[in-house]
């Protein structure tokens, strides 16, 4: 006795207990699917009948049923068939080249024979090393030959001389004279110019400054004596630097100042450097004429004093 909810070998239905043959089960499923598709097509917006003049009729005529919610035409695409790479998103290695495929795959490549399969590795003919070596040998031989020729020419023209020295005896002077080239003759040394001979000329000069006597000048160690001597010496140096003697390195040294009645007697020494050939050009009269011509400038440096021009005297000491 069989239970009503169990299936037997003849595929009894659990609800009514009737037997359904297996051959009729597939036809029943096919009929059910076809009737479902027909009902779906009859209910599609394209097959519906709308009342003319309504908005639904206008939208059906305009093809709104074939547009999406944004008003763009629908794109009917076929669902992609899942591939192993899509189902399992794993890293797919780059396809192998023909020469990298396994031996089993190369044997089942079709009707293309193994001799005609393309191969990406090509071999070009290598360089001919024999010709390169031969060319290098010829080039080196020519260079050695040219070097030998140059050495022979230098030996024949006595440009290159080999001197052999014996360990027992020293070379003679004649052999050294013929073997070693003579040094080039040096140009004559320039004759040094004769340095000019300079001499120093010293003159002792005297002059009188009118109405400048002072009782303090009688003491040679007094401050007034030292101050008056400095003023006179600076005035004489300024006069000589602005005179024609400025290029002769003039030097003035005041030896003493003393009272001479109401006047001030000044004695100083003037030194100049001149050439020996100009020894006769500078005499006492030349220096006296210079002092007379510059007497006005000297009076200005001495605070507008007066110099007695008639009592200016010059004497050469060397």
TrEMBL record:
What keywords does the record list, in alphabetical order? Membrane, Transmembrane, Transmembrane helix
Where is there biased composition of kind Low complexity? 29-44
Enumerate composition-biased segments (Polar residues). Answer: 1-18
Q: Where is the region Disordered?
A: 1-80
Q: Which domain of life is it from?
A: Eukaryota
Show the stretches that span the lipid bilayer.
132-165
Q: Does the keyword Transmembrane helix apply?
A: yes
Question: What is the name attached to this protein's record?
Answer: SEA domain-containing protein
């Amino acid at each position: 006795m069989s239970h009503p909810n169990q299936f037997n070998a003849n595929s009894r239905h659990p609800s009514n207990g009737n037997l359904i043959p297996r051959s009729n089960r597939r036809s029943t499923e096919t009929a059910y699917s076809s009737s479902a598709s027909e009902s779906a097509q009859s209910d599609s917006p394209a097959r519906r009948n709308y009342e003319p003049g309504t908005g639904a009729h206008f939208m059906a005529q305009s093809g709104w049923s074939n547009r999406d919610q944004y008003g763009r035409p629908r794109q009917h695409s076929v669902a992609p068939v899942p591939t192993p790479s899509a189902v399992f998103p794993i890293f797919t290695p780059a396809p192998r080249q023909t020469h990298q495929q396994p031996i089993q795959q190369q044997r089942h490549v079709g009707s293309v024979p193994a001799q005609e399969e393309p191969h990406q590795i090509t071999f070009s003919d290598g360089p001919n090393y024999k010709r390169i070596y031969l060319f290098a040998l010829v080039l080196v031989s020519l260079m050695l030959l040219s070097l030998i020729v140059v050495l022979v020419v230098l030996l024949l023209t006595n440009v290159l001389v080999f001197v052999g020295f014996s360990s027992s005896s020293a070379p003679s002077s004649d052999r050294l004279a013929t073997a070693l080239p003579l040094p080039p003759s040096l140009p004559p040394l320039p004759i040094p110019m004769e340095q000019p001979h300079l001499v120093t000329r010293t003159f002792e000069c005297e002059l009188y400054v009118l109405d400048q006597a002072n009782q303090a000048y009688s003491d040679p160690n007094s401050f007034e004596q030292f101050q008056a001597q400095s003023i006179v010496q600076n005035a004489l140096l300024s006069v000589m630097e602005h005179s024609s003697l400025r290029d002769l390195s003039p030097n003035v040294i005041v030896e003493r100042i003393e009272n001479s009645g109401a006047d001030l007697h000044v004695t100083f020494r003037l030194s100049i450097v001149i050439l020996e050939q100009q020894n006769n050009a500078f005499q006492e009269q030349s220096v006296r004429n210079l002092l007379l011509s510059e007497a006005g400038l000297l009076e200005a440096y001495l605070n507008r004093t007066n110099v007695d021009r008639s009592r200016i005297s010059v004497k050469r000491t060397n």
